[in-house]
Amino acid sequence: MQKFFKRPLIIVIVIAAITLVFAYGLTQARIDNNNLEFIPDSSKAHIISDYLDETFGGQVMMLVGFERPYSTIYDPAFLLKMRTFADEVKALPLIRAVNSVMSTQYITASGDTIFADNLVPDDFSGTPAELEELKQRLSSWELIDGVLISKDGKAASMMITLDIPIDKSGEPEAVSLVMGIRDRARELFADDCNVFVTGQPIVSASINEAVAQDLIFLIPLVVIVLLATLFFSFRRWQSVFLVLLTVVVAVVWTIGAMPLVGIKLSIISSILPVILLAVGSAYGIHVVTHYDEQMKIKPENLSTEEYNNLVYTLVSHLIKPVGLAALTTLAGFISFCFTPIVPIRWFGLFASWGVVVAFVVAVTLIPSLMLLKGVPKKRSMVEPVETTTPHNRHRAFDVVVAGGLVAVVRKRKTILTLTALAVVFSIIGLSRLIIDNNTVNYFKDTSDVVQSSNFMDEYFGGSSDLSIVITADSTEELFDPKVLGAVDDFAKWMDANVPQVGRVVGFTDTVKRINQVFNVDEAPTGYREVASSSEQVASEDVDSLDFGFGDFGFGDFEEDVATNDTNGTNNTVVEPVETTSWTINDYTAADIVDFMSDALADSEVKTPAELVRKIEALTNYEGAAYYEIPRDPARYGKSTDAELAGIVQNYLMLLSGGDFSDYANDPMSPTAIRSMIQLKVSGDQETKQVLDKMNHYIAENFPDSIKTEIQFDRDHKALNTGYTIGGNAFTQSSIADLIVDSQVISIVISVLMVILILSISYKSIMAGIIGAIPIALAIMVNFAIMGFAGITLNIGTALIASLSVGIGIDYTIHIIDTFKREYQDELAQGGVASDFLLRTFRISGKAIIINAASVGLGFGVLVFSNFRMLGQFGGLIMLSMLVSATVSLTLIPVMLTTVKPKFIYGP
Hints:
Strand content: 5-15%
Mean pLDDT: 82
Largest sheet: 4 strands, antiparallel
Structural class: alpha+beta
Strand order of the largest sheet: 2-5-1-6
Helix content: 55-70%
Number of strands: 13
Distance between the termini: 33 Å
Number of helices: 29
Oligomer: single chain
């Protein structure tokens, strides 16, 4: 040891130089909290996300909501301002689409032409007639009714789709874009309405923004708390400075290393500075505390050689207990390296690195600075001698604390009873624990993210989403009425039977809309006259039987359908004959009364709006009777399902200017279609309920051709046709599943490593078992409190258990090591070891209390974080430190004096 510290100045210079290198790395730090960053590339959620991106283009969407509580959206000036804003957003880079009342398409028909026109014409000026026309258009199509403008007219929404893959949504360019859109919306509409912005990119960007604010605010705060705690404990600025210097160097080396190896900060790794400032201080505290204790019992006038030897001896005595404390803390952090959640894995790796740095700096830099400073000129730490016995030269505070702990430990039965009650309490609380990782719940209720999510839930379909994709080998198979009908029935069933579902929109809505506008003039019950193809029809009549399609460059449609008959035959082809338009004049008063009666008798009609829709369908008002997937061949003048599939395909060919790439992988001949499900969910438990209902419905009701779940190869390519479910809500639910795996893995590994380390160190398995008791109890109490308080297990609180193992074991190690040393020293001096317990608490009791206080208060500053999750994390760590320290100072001595293990008492 003396040889190592022969040139302390070199040690200080080397550490300073390395610190400067890592300080440069701090300037390169970047933050990324994209959901996909939390799951492995090989996970199902990641694979499906990649598949959705490749099949339907960018899936990164943000929602902007506008609320006018004292007016309505139908204000010409406001609507024109919405158009201005939409145009500004469209002109930005990386913007794929902007859908709002002023910038979306409206499918309609003119003669035999189907086209997608602007919902609001370019020359819109806001006249009363134009506003009435807008309201009529919105109510005429279920796909947009209540989606672009709320039913009460007081809120509007705008969906902005970014032209980037999901895994790039956390990049600086994307973050800057979405935050710029948010700020521009608030600026432009500051005097008109309340603006709410949500969606996964804005949530991720808001997390990044809040993380940066936390780092700026919390790091100085935890330094202040640490300074106050250390000064109260040591009353000497030199001791405070040495401990603080240790942890500052550890933080710089740790955070600075991340960007140097290409790792970005996340919401998890952002708490590393707080953790290292709190945890890393323990090693410096023990070094400085034992230094002060040694100086108290030494003569007033020490020579330089005596002083140096004191420092060498100090390091020699502390290297094992402090090293063990660091090693066991390392075990807690290393356990995170084996979890499937990527940011937690990186957190574990760099936290482990930080612990190693804090330990090395504590046992090298602090002694080196002590040696460079030399013998203290003024021994302020030396106190009046109470007796001639060196062991009694302690402050009154130390005596009171040590005496009180001895008195508590003697209440053996009380301590054991309280421990048993704590175990029972923990088991009950654990049964109430909820696992949830909804990113919106990271934030406090007063945050913009939470309020925006609540706004979307209240006025629209919700801020969370799922996607279900249906694939087939060919367009003909995909457009089979049984397939499209099943998809449409699924959407209707979800809307009607799953309370968490706010809206289901997709490809079938487009098909139904085209079918509706094309058949405005048809009878509500179907084509009224049907003739067999075997009948002789005049050629001039046959020429007119194009069903509104003509040949539009594709030849005779009926002949094409016939040749594509699935049975390979064409015995009977049913054609519609030309009819006149169906109008209100075709109805008698009795007919209208019957329509009203039928509508009221329908059990699904529960509101006036539904009554109106039912009557519209019964009378085919504006084609409402045909807002459906064509399923009945006879209704459409056809004889086979293949012919109906042909109708749907020709609808797409007729559609001019429409863009529904969000719902189909090809505009003319898709083989994959999608339905998007907006959810109003408070957490992952509700998402899982929705997913379970979806899968159950699919298994029971989908045709065999699409009821098989799609499997993917290593390149994320689909291996079969069928269905798959993805989306942001699915990704978050998958993270929640990974949290369970992560928690089990990290706890098991950390506890086993601690037991192994202690067993090897003390050459006794009993040492490992006794050492594991405080951390096991701390973990159980932590989970119990979470269960009773309703605190969810998420990516933040999932860290607590293993952190409790890694940090809390320090207290056990110090009490066991001091207990053993004082007991054996007393015996070696010929005594009977009658007061060794008092000396044990005098030496280690104070260090443990200071350590627990500094660590607990250091983590306590997280209650001021922008994130509710981190506030809960900080409070629970404080609780764990209290439990671990209390158990170490009470239950451990009771067990050691009761069990009398051989590794302390000998044979």
